[in-house]
Design a protein that fits this description.
alpha+beta, 6-stranded mixed beta sheet, 677 residues, extended, 8-stranded mixed beta sheet, Helicase, Ruva Protein, domain 3
């Protein structure tokens, strides 16, 4: 096995002459010294990679394949189109796939799910009593509890098998690299200091290991790169003990459709019933954080009523920039990493090594650092000649010296635009606010926190609904201990932002991107609450969203109060009209009869009433106009006092349908577009 381009100690010992005939080495006390390959280790500890049980294994397989597909498309700046298919495979079909013939049970008592006649009689009697009690409760109008599943049958039941397929339009893979990319654990293209969705090189390999453990069937890969006139097809499994691919078929086929990307198919044991909601939840959250991608999810079963197709449509063609690989920050390196960098560097002198292999160290600062190391160090000394003691001195100085924080230029956050579109597309909230913070640092690693808070929406429960993302990956498990969940529950005073934490439908979305996500536990499912820099950045981002929402909520409250005030005034218009008109009518009659002396304006008014020029309807209309005017003046006075002004208008360019490179500026010509949420 090769890790980072080096020969492993195990393979090195084999090449130096130890053959299989030699057998395991024995220590002096007679105990046998054994070694395990990485594939064997992860096969025995599959829970580390999220393969705890069949249901979780099905979910993790879908997740790993989808994330690899997105990485592949984004690496060539291609708008991702990902098709995921889960096909249920019945027992008969599975047996034919592996070459077995169906066989009926002969000795029923031999099986774990066998139920004796006495146990069956007892179970049926219990079910009958339960049905009788429910019938009595129904007759009395009482609420009937749903019957719980029967616990009489002991066995685990028959295993369920599924073919999981994922097809993308990404980069594809070179023909000769496919076996090692899928059949060798801890090998991949994502190693290095870079923001990536995965780091361990497990992903599809772990799905292959689970397939080998649960079904024994190989994985199938089809791949083609841009401009390639053939498609690579490979069917393989993995030699667990040697951590090498076992290739069944590897050939080139015609690529008539000029397709580029990869399609992976694997047959595994799974549990669709228990983890269906988790898979849907994952796909929905992935559609939120990547609105520039199109996902097509299919479930195929022998029972037609179970079949389904769900499409998560693309909302935008604006993609985040491709994350860049960066160099290590001197404050984040350890002793082993410094030694590895020295062995791999192409620089000759110590000055060049410090200046070019780390970020934020210029030539002048590098010279000052070397001068601080002592008389044994000079700028022009060969970096390869450094002793272990000298390397330790460099490490000590790096830990104690002061360096500028790394910039976030190497990071690729989703962006406020995409986050907002994703939330609107999937949840349809009444109000939404988003915020993207500037780059911050923990332990020498840059990170950016983005947040969104929504109110209302479709399929959103009352209270807090927390959605967590790390390097644009949804995190679904172990939510309670996560820094985002704890911050939203304990550190945000929602009432101060006019938000009711218990009654309102609140969606809290937090995305953290970094060159190193500080996951807790082996499952990479949550970020700990013990890193002060990240905890404070998450709190600040959520608060910024809440401040935006508070402004919108206050405006809506004022609008409701304005409407209520207007309704109250309008409610009295008929009564006021009748009373005023009756008074004026009596005055008009008195004027005609007794010729009372009134002002000239009053005489004119009374004359119009006598001649029915002014009626109750005209008076009611005038009163309604007066209510409108008063309401408008009060709103204008409030806006003047609060300093409200018209929002700045931004130009919006819409692409013409008949020209790819021409854009129409609607703002400056005819229309002004403004977004109100």
């Amino acid at each position: 096995m090769e890790v980072g381009g080096r020969e492993s100690p195990v393979e090195g010992s084999k090449k130096r002459g130890r053959s299989k005939k030699d057998g395991p080495e024995k220590s002096k006390d007679g105990s046998v010294l054994k070694q395990k390959s990485p594939a064997e280790f992860f096969a025995e500890n599959k829970n580390i990679a999220g393969f705890d049980n069949p249901g979780k294994s099905l979910y993790t397989t879908v997740r790993e394949l989808v994330e690899n597909a997105l990485d592949s498309a984004e690496s060539i700046s291609e708008l991702p189109v990902v098709e995921i298919t889960i096909e249920e495979i019945g027992k008969t079909k599975f047996n034919s796939m592996i070459g077995l013939v169906d066989r009926e049970r002969v000795d029923e008592e031999l099986y774990d799910d066998y139920e004796s006649a006495k146990a069956r009689e007892k179970r049926l009697a219990k079910e009958a009593r339960t049905q009788e009690i429910q019938a009595k409760n129904a007759a009395l109008g009482k609420k009937i509890k749903e019957p719980t599943s029967a616990k009489g049958i002991k066995g685990r039941g028959e295993a369920s098998f599924y073919r999981v397929a994922c097809k993308d339009n990404g980069r594809g893979m070179p023909h000769d690299d496919i076996p090692n990319m899928f059949g060798r654990v801890l090998s991949g293209t994502k190693y290095g200091l870079k923001q990536t969705r995965g780091k361990f090189g497990l992903g599809a390999k772990m799905a292959l290991i689970w397939s080998k453990m649960s079904t024994g069937l190989p994985i199938e890969i089809s791949s083609s790169t841009r401009g390639q006139n053939y498609t690579s097809f490979c069917r393989l499994d993995i030699d667990i003990h040697r951590n090498i691919p076992h290739v069944h078929l590897h050939e080139k086929r015609a690529n008539l459709e000029k397709w580029h990307g990869a399609e992976i198919q694997v047959v595994i044991e799974g549990n669709w019933t228990t983890y269906r909601s988790k898979i849907f939840h994952y796909m929905r959250q992935m559609a939120v954080i990547t609105p520039y991608a199109q996902f097509i999810f299919k479930f195929i079963s022998d029972a037609p009523e179970k079949n389904m197709t769900i499409k998560f449509a693309r909302r935008t063609d604006v993609m985040p920039p491709v994350p860049l690989e960066t160099k290590h920050h001197p404050s984040s390196v350890d002793l082993l990493l410094i030694k590895r960098l020295i062995s791999e560097t192409s620089k000759q002198s110590l000055l060049q090594f410090i200046q070019h292999e780390f970020v934020n160290i210029g030539k002048g600062y590098a010279e000052r650092l070397i001068g601080e190391m002592g008389d044994d160090f000079i700028p022009k000394m060969s970096v390869k000649s450094l002793t272990d003691q000298q390397i330790v001195r460099i490490h000590q100085l790096f830990r104690q010296a002061k360096f500028d924080d790394p910039s976030g230029d190497c990071l690729s956050p989703a962006g406020e635009y995409n986050l907002r579109l994703g939330i609107i597309k999937e949840l349809h909230p009444d109000l939404v606010a988003t915020y993207s913070g500037s780059a911050q640092v923990f332990e020498g690693h840059p990170f950016i926190v983005e947040a969104g808070v929504s109110l209302g929406g479709r399929d959103v429960k009352q209270g807090l609904n927390v959605f967590r993302f790390a390097n644009r990956i949804p995190l679904l498990f172990e939510q309670g201990a996560d820094v985002v969940t704890r911050t939203a529950l304990k550190r945000i005073n929602w009432n101060s932002y006019k938000i009711n934490q218990m009654q309102d439908k609140i969606g809290v979305f937090v995305s953290i991107v970094s060159t190193k996500i500080p996951f807790k536990g082996t499952g990479k499912e949550y970020i700990g609450d013990d890193i002060t820099e990240i905890a404070s950045a998450v709190k600040s981002a959520i608060q910024q969203c809440c401040v935006q929402l508070k402004t919108k909520i206050v405006k809506k409250m004022q609008a409701r109060e304005q409407q209520e005030r207007k309704r109250n005034l309008a409610k009295y218009i008929p009564s006021a009209t009748a009373a005023v008109y009756d008074v004026l009518k009596v005055m008009a009659e008195s004027h005609e009869a007794k010729k009372k002396r009134y002002e000239e304006e009053d005489v004119e008014l009374l004359t119009k009433i006598s001649e029915h020029v002014i009626t109750k309807d005209t008076l009611a209309e005038k009163l309604a106009q007066h209510v409108e005017q008063v309401d408008y003046e009060m709103a204008l006075e409030y806006a003047t006092q609060s300093g409200a002004s018209e929002e700045p208008r931004e130009n919006i360019y819409i692409q013409s349908l008949d020209a790819k490179k021409e854009y129409l500026d609607f703002t400056s010509q005819i229309f002004t577009f403004r977004l109100f949420l």
